[in-house]
Amino acid sequence: MIKGCQKKMIHVKNTNSPYFEEAFFVVKNDVDPALCENDMIKEAQRIADSCLAGEGHNRLKLSPKKVTALLLILSGIAFTASVVMLIACICA
User: I need a labelling partner for 55 at 20 to 30 A (CA). Which of 1, 3, 30, 89 fits?
Assistant: First the structure.
């Protein structure tokens, strides 16, 4: 069981993507606390936009089956993380 685990996250709801409704970014532990929240949100949006733009050779070409499998895996990971965090909060 995980105790004392706390992560800060940025939740981008409007990704302007035809594929993704929202994105979650886990903030590094060593980020300067003086950094403005708006700056972190802008950086998260920039990263999401650059991934969607497919900067040259970095763009992934996945078949629809692979995209579906990837989304199922990611949703399973997100669900598991949510359950673990919920249990940690209840037990704390």
Answer: 30
Residue type, 64: P
Burial 55-80 (b: 16+ CB within 10 A, else e): eeeeeeeeeeeeeeeeeeeeeeeeee
Q: pLDDT, tens digit, for every residue of 46-84?
A: 777 777 665 444 555 678 888 888 888 989 998 898 888
Among residues 88, 84, 2, 16, the alpha carbon closest in space to that of 52 is found at 16
What is this structure's pTM? 0.42
Residue 29's Cβ-side half-sphere holds a number of Cα atoms within 13 Å equal to 3
The SS3 call for residue 77 is helix
